[in-house]
Amino acid sequence: MSEAARLMDAAIRLSLRGLGRTAPNPNVGCLVVRNGRIVARGWTQPGGRPHAEMMALEAAGAAARGAELYVSLEPCAHVSPRGPACADLIVASGVSAVHIAMRDPDPRTDGQGAARLGSAGVAVTLGTGEAAARQAMAGFLSRIALGRPRITLKLAMSIDGRVSMPGGESQWITGPEARAHAHLQRALADVIVIGRGTLEADDPSLDVRLPGLEDRSPRPAVLSATLDAIPASAKFADRDPLLLASVDDLCGLAVNDVLVEGGAATASTLLAADLIDRMLVYRAPVVIGDGAPGAGRIGLERLADAHGRWRLAETRALGNDRLEVYARTR
Amino acid sequence: MSEAARLMDAAIRLSLRGLGRTAPNPNVGCLVVRNGRIVARGWTQPGGRPHAEMMALEAAGAAARGAELYVSLEPCAHVSPRGPACADLIVASGVSAVHIAMRDPDPRTDGQGAARLGSAGVAVTLGTGEAAARQAMAGFLSRIALGRPRITLKLAMSIDGRVSMPGGESQWITGPEARAHAHLQRALADVIVIGRGTLEADDPSLDVRLPGLEDRSPRPAVLSATLDAIPASAKFADRDPLLLASVDDLCGLAVNDVLVEGGAATASTLLAADLIDRMLVYRAPVVIGDGAPGAGRIGLERLADAHGRWRLAETRALGNDRLEVYARTR
After folding, report:
1. Is residue B143 assigned to a domain?
2. Which residues of B223-260 are buried (b: 16+ CB within 10 A; e: fewer)?
3. Do A306 and B300 touch (CB under 8 A)?
4. C-alpha–C-alpha distance, residues B21 and A71, integer Å
5. Which positions are annotated as binding substrate (chains A, B) (predicted)?
6. pLDDT of residue B330
7. Is residue A287 located within the same domain as residue A222?
């Protein structure tokens, strides 16, 4: 790996600090490097401002002059009421070169940030670490490309695809390692969605129960065409929950990453609408038999219709369980 | 790996040639080695005779004198109407040393084979490659230890644990690589079992459709408490099918390896009776939704009862699908 690739990789890893908290802005990471040493770091702050570049340049101060900047997304070219354009800030800082992992597909920037830097005499490279940057900002990119958040369905399942016992018992199918991993996924999502049935049956907390990440609980949302209001008695009622009357409401959320945690009716609705981009299956080495399934009817007529939609993007052990990450293929 | 370990490994791999065809005898592999060169090979022949040692010694002829013999299971000590005791044959052959992977737990041998060799002045080592030998003869060892065959349940499933579409369509959930692997498992089984429902719904062939292995189709069996006879119209009717009126009949089969291929009622009966030793799950990257499950009620009262019974012994990609091998833990 070249020095530039290593530094960009560090900037991208830094970008993950903001994941789940920067919406509607992308989670970006930025480094200021002088003579091969990192002199300042920045990442998009909660709520989306300051941008990573502004944070890094403020931290660098005078040290930015003549330095190189590594940033996981093209610096923005537009001034907004919430802050200046990063491209202008960079030019003003005296940075001599800017390495950009990927062009910003947001039409307000989309090449104009890089062009402004180039016009001002800043050396610009584009594309180092692009694949990793795409992965780190998958939710934001999904929103720009599809006009809706990336939607991830989480399922904790037995070998035979059951998510609970016949009577509803589901605590716990998976072990502590898998549950901790699932809680981390909550911390990385902007919004967590359940259906009315799950709310009424389980009244879940939908929070992040991981030491040090307790404040990273995503905003709760209930998808229900029939619910008038979310009861004030719900465990998550104090976290400003959203009531989504339809999948259109869900798709219209101005966030990057939505995590769907159940139940079967909600999963089926979203699968049938072909709105699931990713599935996180936590597979426990148990057979349940006649318990409740993770999904019901999803509108397939023939087996051929089921094929070709998913690929196993990742699988690994989590304690006695196994994580299977499925990504949509189209 | 030592020279002895390598040679024993070769003998064990040779033993797999007989897998599924040697019952009620174990599938054994045997090498005759002279000055580090393999001069003869043997493996238990279909029906269980000749034994691996007899085949190898006959092939070696005079070259056996002073040679070393590698065998995956202790040579038998008992004369039967079907053949002499291998321990006697080995002594008569003039072999100077015998390497045995594992002691034969069959009470008719159980140490007496090795003892007879030792008494006759043959050098005996025991235990090289024992773990691999145990795995290669798992069915036989199960029969000796539990008094019944090893029972393997095969399931071709979607991510969500469905084995067919709501209307019953199940061809194909998995792709050609997974199906070929499943056919190879048939070739390695003595008996293949389905339930009455599967017979009536699918009339499956239950044969081995792999080039060169067409003659390795296992004996078909139908588990049904209510069926009077297997209809002569069944596709496998010409392969001397067995009618099993109960799981006791199944357990009483004088074979080593039984493969259970469906359907849900049969799987549930055997899971509920805790008679499944191994599950081969072929997992396709598809979501089906409200199709038929692989198993129904298996008699669990609480989720805790489901835990601790299985461990994922192996997993690997088979084309677009994935094989999950679960082994019982107790």
Report:
1. no
2. bbeebeebeeebebeebebbebeebeebbebebbbbbb
3. no
4. 64
5. 170, 186, 206, 209, 261
6. 81
7. yes
**Is the same domain home to A181 and A290?**
yes
- Round to whole Å and give the CA distance between B95 and B70: 11
Task: Provide the number of structural domains found in chain B.
Answer: 2
A53 in active site: yes
Q: How far is B118 from A27, CA to CA, in rounded Å?
A: 74
Read off the CATH number of the domain in which A7 is found. 3.40.140.10
Tell whether B132 and B186 lie within a shared domain.
no
Query: Complex ipTM, two decimals?
Result: 0.91
Verify that B239 and B126 share a domain, yes or no.
Answer: no
A127: DSSP letter: -
Check: CB of residue A12 under 8 Å from CB of residue A30.
no
CB atoms within 10 A of CB A324: 24
Boundary residue ending a domain (B118, B137, B156): B137
Q: Are residues B101 and B158 in the same domain?
A: no
* Residues B251 and B299 occupy one common structural domain: yes
Q: Which residues pair with A325 in a beta bridge?
A: A280, A314
Mutate to test the interface with A, among B158, B160, B172 (most CBs of A within 10 A): B160
CA distance A307 to chain B (A): 6
**Which one of B158, B160, B297 has the shortest CB-CB distance to A289?**
B297
Residues of B with active-site annotation: 53
CA-based diameter of chain A, in Å?
68
- Rounded Cα distance between A179 and A173, Å, is 10
- Whole-angstrom CA distances from B117 to A174, B63, B64, B99 are 52, 19, 15, 11
Q: Which H or E run includes A52?
A: helix A52-60
Per residue in B242-265, pLDDT (tens digit) is 999 999 999 999 999 999 998 899
As a whole number, the mean pLDDT across chain B is 96
Tokens of A52: 């990573």
The answer to whether the Cβ–Cβ distance between B287 and A293 falls below 8 Å is no
User: Residue B142: inside a domain, yes or no?
Assistant: no
Question: Hunting for tokens 């902007």 — which residue is that?
Answer: A190
* Residue that finishes a domain, picked among A139, A161, A185: A139
pLDDT digits 0-9 by tens, A231-248: 999 999 999 999 999 999
* Gap between the Cα atoms of A128 and A70, Å rounded: 10
**Chain B residue with the nearest C-alpha to that of A293:** B160
Round to whole Å and give the CA distance between A314 and A320: 17
CATH code assigned at A205: 3.40.430.10
Same domain, A266 and A156: yes
For residues A222 and A243, membership in a common domain is answered with yes
Residue B70 domain-assigned (yes or no): yes
Predicted confidence (pLDDT) per residue in A45-62, tens digit: 999 999 999 999 999 999
Q: Which domain holds residue B239?
A: 148-328
pLDDT band at B133 (very low <50, low <70, confident <90, very high): very high
Average pLDDT, stretch B12-38?
Answer: 96
DSSP state of A254: S
Which of A219, A254, A209, A255 is CA-nearest to residue A239? A219
Q: Is A310 annotated as a binding residue?
A: no
Q: Is residue B311 part of a domain?
A: yes
User: How many contacts (CB atoms, under 8 Å) link A and B?
Assistant: 137
Amino acid at A26: P
User: How many Å lie between the alpha carbon of A325 and the closest alpha carbon of chain B?
Assistant: 10
